[in-house]
Amino acid sequence: MCLWRRRKLRCFLFLLIASILSLIFQIWFIHNNSQFQGGSSFQGMVTKWLNSGSNGAQENLKLFMKHASQANLPLFLMDPIVLEAVRNVSRGSVDERRAPHHCRYLCSSQGVITLGLLGDSDVKVKPDLLQSLQDDGFQYVITEGHDPRLASVASMAAGKVPHHMLFRRHSFLIHIVVLYERPGKFLWHAAVEAEKTQKWMSLVEDRELQFGEYEGAYDKMEIIPTKLDGVKLNIPKNPSAFLQQIPHARFLECNYGQARKFHTAYGSDQTAEGVEFVGKAKSLLSQGRAVLDRIGVRFWMSSGTCLGWFRQCGIIPHSKDVDFGIWIKDYKDTLIPAFQAAGLSLKHRFGKVEDSFELSFQSGDVKLDIFFFYEEDDIMWNGGTQARTGKKFKYIFPRFTLCWTEFLDMKVRVPCETLAYVQANYGANWYEPVKQWDWKNSPPNVQPNGQWPEEEWSEVIQLFDVR
Fold first, then answer.
1. pLDDT in tens, 52-73
2. What is the full DSSP assignment across 52-117?
């Protein structure tokens, strides 16, 4: 009797598992074969269930955009997941059978859509719009913060402007990122300070937003109208170019409060010589940036130029040169000819591409030094060469990544881990100005690195007459 019951139970479990697997297969088959979708029977019900989330995205976004268009809000789609779908369809890399025609793009949003709002001098959302959205079931929260267009060393305060907006209807979220054009002719958005806003946290719950963990910087872009899944939207004309910027868009604001304290403590060099050098250095930095951007080589402000930005939000008047860092893996043979074509003379070429490479260009009486960085285990380093003796030096830095900043009305890169970078190069007393500096002995991160063989000097130690 007991044996019969056990057999009956095993049989029941077998049939139950087989039924579940059969149902799963039918759902998978229907979802991946469009000719079976949309029927009035079981197939139609399955299709409706599969696409219920995407219909919510379409319905809620369409309703929101209707109100936004009536209020003339300059919104555009900047959601990376949806733009990726747009790019894939345009490339023909989407299987038409696997993408429901009525929701090819928005159904990939996973319950959150990100829109950009191009900020201007008056980007306030009108109360009438907010009320009409509330009447249609949208909850919302708006965060505000400093106006990036007013920030400077001289300014003690900056006006408040909207930074981020969040709208929720049912379980669907619309995150609006407000982008402002800065003096450097690029677009900037703030980080989300969600911990200060309880309502923001309650609306987001455990969902992950695509933007707002850090401040971000993006090139200006052309926006065009389109229709995605029946919803009228604006999108970047070149989605690929925008998507490529997202992983590398983190922005660091110069610490203007720290800079003001520095200038209060140590004063500002307003001598004719100091003012003249700052003007020339700014021009050379701009010229060098234009050359490297044109040939597609990433660079960052290094050494004294980086210290000047980090410490005092400006160029150090007594530094007498401009310093760039470049990954050796990004070096191109067209780099030297490009600088020469732009009117900069090659002053010296030290080392080899595979070891301690260094270039220096001259513009008038101001020098542009380019240090090439190598990766080695858990460190990064650049080399130095003493022309008279052939001695080699190695400057060691902890690993770092790159961020954007705005410096002298220019969008340029700096190490994201700036404090660690500066401390490695200048020590714990980096905040104090030093006018006597020996590049071979003063940096705390320098160490001897051997000597070039004399038979290689003609290759690794090249000095040029730039008069």
1. 444 678 899 999 999 999 988 9
2. HHHHHHHHHHHHHHHHHHHTT--EEE--HHHHHHHHHHHHT-S-GGGS-GGGSSGGGSTTEEEEEE
